[in-house]
Write a structure and sequence with these properties.
mainly alpha; 16 helices; 0% strand
């Protein structure tokens, strides 16, 4: 039954995508986009809320931790060591209203929908050829059932919330600098994630675009050659004992990516990056303002560094987290309609295959 539901929703997505690119079909594209967008949102919420805890080890741990907070009688019994001060208090106060982990997961899925809607709205002005509804639809198709996005929102929940809030506050700060005042508060949700974000943003602010664009081809070349991980591990071995976890578990000397993960890297990250990079080298676009140029630098830096370190540590995903939503927004900005139709169709089909392979992880 689950398989049939997702098969039907996938077919509707593909039909809706084709219709939005064909002016001769069914008249008003915005009305069609609303229907398909609702279907995409519903599919994401269904998927997100029927996966079993076996989908990710962290999901099991988060449920145990959530239930332990529900059972607390007093605030002074709350331990903030494992999940951070801010996040622990936020969840503690949430448990005054809900005590079911499934409802917490539902609220998290709703937060994701709000996040992508706000981000699409902020970048819509750079995509003048389409309405906001079309931009949001394309963005949702690319991101919501993306294997990376699902991993962020189920396996590294704290990092995901901290990273997504950080991106939103930095984006909003171009409207009003007061939003920068909220950035330090994210430290209490996840300290390492906010430090990574600040590093990426400051680097993007300091380095000129003509230097940043070289990070992308260099990281992709290194990814296929595979020498960067050996270089980093050899340098690190000077400072640590042999066979020891490097830099508090960030770099692991026996870590290697699976073939499935490498394929996902290519399809979800490298392929759209190459399409954007081709436009950059051809100089077929002009930056509208400093905001647009700044965030393409943030995207390129976070993805380039994440791709470089992905052969060394699974924690590279925490760096990729900042650039992933920006990647798809810039892909929509810079790609042609044919490129969009091809790539989004490919991603929908890849997501469908991934859903089929994970049918045993659904609770219905």
């Amino acid at each position: 039954m689950t398989f049939l539901i997702f098969s039907l929703l996938t077919v509707i997505q593909l039909i809706g995508l084709y219709v939005t690119y064909n002016k001769n079909l069914l008249g008003n594209k915005n009305k069609i986009a609303v229907v398909v967008l609702i279907i995409v949102f519903v599919e994401f919420i269904i998927f997100f809320n029927i996966i079993s805890l076996s989908y990710g080890d962290d999901l099991i741990e988060y449920k145990r931790w959530f239930q332990s907070i529900v059972e607390l009688n007093f605030l002074n019994e709350l331990s903030t060591e494992s999940k951070g001060l801010g996040f622990s208090y936020i969840v503690y106060f949430i448990t005054f209203f809900i005590n079911d982990f499934n409802i917490f997961i539902f609220l998290l899925s709703c937060y994701t929908l709000i996040f992508i809607t706000l981000l699409a709205y902020e970048f819509k002005k750079y995509i003048r050829t389409e309405s906001f509804l079309i931009v949001l639809l394309l963005f949702a198709m690319l991101l919501l059932l993306n294997r990376y996005q699902l991993g962020y929102s189920t396996n590294i929940i704290r990092s995901y919330i901290a990273g997504s809030l950080f991106i939103l506050f930095i984006v909003f700060s171009f409207r009003n600098k007061l939003f920068l005042g909220f950035v330090p508060l994210i430290y209490f949700i996840h300290d390492m994630q906010i430090l990574l974000g600040i590093f990426i943003v400051l680097t993007a602010y300091i380095l000129p675009f003509r230097i940043v664009i070289w990070f992308v081809p260099l990281s992709i070349i290194s990814y296929f050659i595979g020498d960067f991980n050996a270089f980093i591990l050899n340098i690190s071995s000077i400072f640590i004992k042999e066979n020891e976890i490097i830099i508090s578990g960030l770099l692991i000397d026996d870590y290697s990516m699976t073939m499935n993960r490498k394929i996902q890297h290519f399809l979800y990250l490298i392929l759209p990056l190459l399409i954007i990079l081709r436009k950059v080298w051809k100089k077929t676009f002009v930056f509208t303002d400093n905001k647009q140029q700044f965030f393409i630098k943030v995207m390129m830096l976070s993805l380039s560094i994440g791709i470089l370190f992905s052969e060394i540590t699974p924690r590279a995903d925490r760096i990729i987290l900042f650039g992933l939503p920006l990647l798809y927004l810039f892909f929509i900005m810079f790609s042609t309609k044919k490129e969009q139709l091809f790539y989004i169709s490919l991603i929908i089909l890849v997501n469908y295959i991934a859903i089929y392979r994970n049918l045993n992880n659904f609770i219905i």
